Amino acid sequence: MRTIAFHNLGCKVNSYETEAMAQKCIEKGYQIVDFEQKADIYVVNTCSVTNIADRKSRQMLHKAKKQNPDSVVVAVGCFVQANPEEVAKDEAIDLIVGNNKKKDLFEIVEEFLRQKHNEEKKNKKESFKEESLSKDLQGKTITDVHHCDYEELKISKSEEHSRVFVKIQDGCDRYCTYCIIPYVRGNLRSRKSEDVVEEIKKIAANGYREVVITGIHLSSYGRDFIQRVQNQNAEKKGNRFEYSENSNYLLDLLKAVSAIDGIERIRIGSFEPMILTEDFVEKLSRIPKLCPHFHISLQSGCDSVLKRMNRHYDTEKFFEKTVLLRKYFPGCALTTDVIVGFPGETEEEFETTYKYLTGIKFFETHIFPYSRRKGTMADKMSGQLAMNEKKERVSKLLELDAKLSREYRESKLGDIDNIIVEEIKTINGQNYYVGHTPEYVMVALKEDESLSRLIGSTVKVTLKEMLNDEVVLGTPDQV
């Protein structure tokens, strides 16, 4: 039995794809081992969203080969798709697999091993070089992701105790000036709703109670289902394709998932602001299992920066969307992303973003220093900021985020809510059972034998006090 180890980098889409690849390998007879152990095969699902992600991808690939020089090291995903020639030259890497061939990982590895075995038999007296095999397979494993169908991957369980990520969409056509993702993930591709529902039914049958619907650009789900002639006619008229034309596809899917027995909670990975019309949000509020926890991608709180980023909204429109969500989901948790130090960002523009974030009061803000990506428009822009300047601005926003995040948690004290007990976690040297409210506030319950049987179950709790800046101490109302 061959042993195989997986390591995932990057987004939740990557996490889903890694689990899908691993489950298929298990079904085919491979034995999964921890990445820190010696394995016959190592698979690193890479990320390329930033320079740091590139570096981490290389480091993990080299670590794998160092752990077992005789192993087959497989580089998969976005870093590979963005840099196929560079990756192919890396002596630590035996195989490269692009973003539309992950479903074929097992077959690709098996083909490589068969070729290696046959070649070794032919050349017993000659030195054997695996690089030639890698090059032979490269044409089959790195494909054009801009003209392809949705790649069917599926899972039935997850390493998570109660929450499972389910991918429904791939690709993006927004081409924000800072982003490499449209180039490495390709055209918009939506998964058939019946396939999503069937997968989630199996997940629910395995005891999971919460699903997180994820994708590269969720707000475009279903747009490729609409007849191409509509797109062509819109282009001829010079009209921008409106999100409202495809929003019902996402709504219909969420309704279908909500009807699945065993599923208690549905979370949405991320929304683009412009899909959030009043009609859309009002219909969202009618889906009973949908969690009031919404991630809306902002990137900057300054209109001039948003324009340079090629974002398709301004701060006034974005604010209107937050008001809509809070109207139909009172007390909901709103989270966002912000890029700091975009090319040309002045101190005044940064302060504008700071004040804007202060006013909206997000539950959490994911803050990133701008990272230059070769091949994007922003890479060619003037006014590139020094890293120390970006780090100073990141630090200021992190302080603001910590303050606003704590304030949101404190606003929930005294509430009675449900959590799904997930795991035991050590906090301040003491063990607690932890879970999350529908708003994704982490709640800790003091360790108790009666709670051990409730991992994966829903428990009603009262939110009592702050345990630390990130965790609320709760007491169970029913055990």
| CATH homologous superfamily caption of the largest domain | tm_1862 like domain
State the share of residues found in helices, binned by percent.
Answer: 25-40%
- Please indicate the count of domains: 3
Q: Residue ranges: pLDDT <50 for 5 or more in a row?
A: 125-130, 239-244
Q: What is the CATH class of the largest domain?
A: Alpha Beta
Please state the overall shape, judged from the principal axes of the Cα atoms.
globular
* Strand order, sheet with most strands: 2-1-3-4-5
Mean pLDDT: 90
CATH topology of the largest domain: pyruvate-formate lyase- activating enzyme
Major β-sheet annotation? 5 strands, parallel
Q: Span from first to last CA?
A: 44 Å
Q: Strand-residue fraction?
A: 15-25%
- SSE-based structural type: alpha/beta
Descriptive labels:
479 residues; single chain; 15 helices; pyruvate-formate lyase- activating enzyme; five-stranded parallel sheet; 17 strands; 3 domains; alpha/beta; globular; Rossmann fold; OB fold (Dihydrolipoamide Acetyltransferase, E2P); five-stranded mixed barrel
Overview of the structural elements:
The chain has helices spanning 12-27, 51-67, 78-82, 84-89, 105-122, 131-141, 181-185, 193-205, 228-236, 247-258, 278-284, 303-309, 315-328, 347-360, 387-411; strands spanning 3-8, 31-32, 41-46, 72-77, 95-97, 163-170, 189-190, 210-215, 265-268, 293-295, 333-340, 364-369, 416-427, 430-436, 442-446, 458-466, 472-476. The strands form four sheets. It has a five-stranded parallel beta sheet, with helices on both faces. A five-stranded mixed beta barrel has the order 13-14-15-17-16. It has a four-stranded mixed beta sheet with strand order 7-6-8-9. With 479 residues, the chain is α/β, with parallel strands linked by helices. Helix 14 (347-360) links the parallel strand 11 (333-340) and strand 12. The protein has three domains: 3-141, Methylthiotransferase, N-terminal domain (Rossmann fold, 3-Layer(aba) Sandwich); 163-407, tm_1862 like domain (pyruvate-formate lyase- activating enzyme, Alpha-Beta Horseshoe), CATH 3.80.30.20; 416-476, OB fold (Dihydrolipoamide Acetyltransferase, E2P) (Beta Barrel), CATH 2.40.50. Helix content is 37%, strand content 20%.
